[in-house]
Write a structure and sequence with these properties.
- This protein is an all-beta fold and 86 residues long.
- The protein has one domain: ATP Synthase, domain 1, CATH 2.60.15.
- Helix content is 0%, strand content 67%.
- Strands 1, 2, 3, 4, 5, 6, 7 and 8 form an 8-stranded mixed sheet that branches.
Length: 86
């Protein structure tokens, strides 16, 4: 599946992956290739992307949401530890 992860600090990940594990308001979920369409709200915790080569990438999430579309693309809009300069 294609995963696109974005935050205010920039692109976190764009590419093909086997799975994404994230904390949601309903509990921790794992999204695999060809998951059914889904929209979910994220909560603070760790997101783990498992790339097609088996390498794991970890990201700290403050909040956000995700959408899995029928075309096998997972988009994650997340807040990380980015701070704006005042």
């Amino acid at each position: 599946m294609r995963i696109n992860m974005y935050s205010p600090s920039g692109i976190q990940f764009e590419g093909e992956a086997m799975s994404l594990n994230v904390p949601t308001r309903a509990g921790e979920i794992t999204i695999l290739d060809h998951h059914r369409p889904l929209i979910s709200i994220l909560k603070k915790g760790k997101a783990v992307v498992v790339q097609t080569n088996g390498e794991k990438l970890e990201y700290e999430i403050e909040s956000g949401f995700l959408e899995m579309d029928p075309d096998n693309t997972l988009t994650v809009l997340m807040h990380d530890h980015y701070e704006k300069n005042s």
